[in-house]
Amino acid sequence: MSWSVQDAKARFSELLETGVKDGPHVFTKRGVETAVLVPIGEWRRLQQRARPTLKGLLLAPEPRFEGGLPYPPRGRWRMRPPPNLE
Q: Which of 41, 57, 61, 68 has a CA 20 to 30 Å removed from the CA of 31?
């Protein structure tokens, strides 16, 4: 179902109820589709599907970090005095 922004503002309670019952609603602004309202269960399901698995990340052909691994900067070695055992 498609709603203009003006209609959605005027009838928000109805919009929310039908969104939960009937599924996603598309919003248009000046005739251009701009947003979608989906029930929270559908949203969480979509987020889980979009999240890559560990196996998928490890086997992906693209690099995981731009410019290499993020190693911390290394400083100079400091010698500690030996412990006094007396």
A: 41
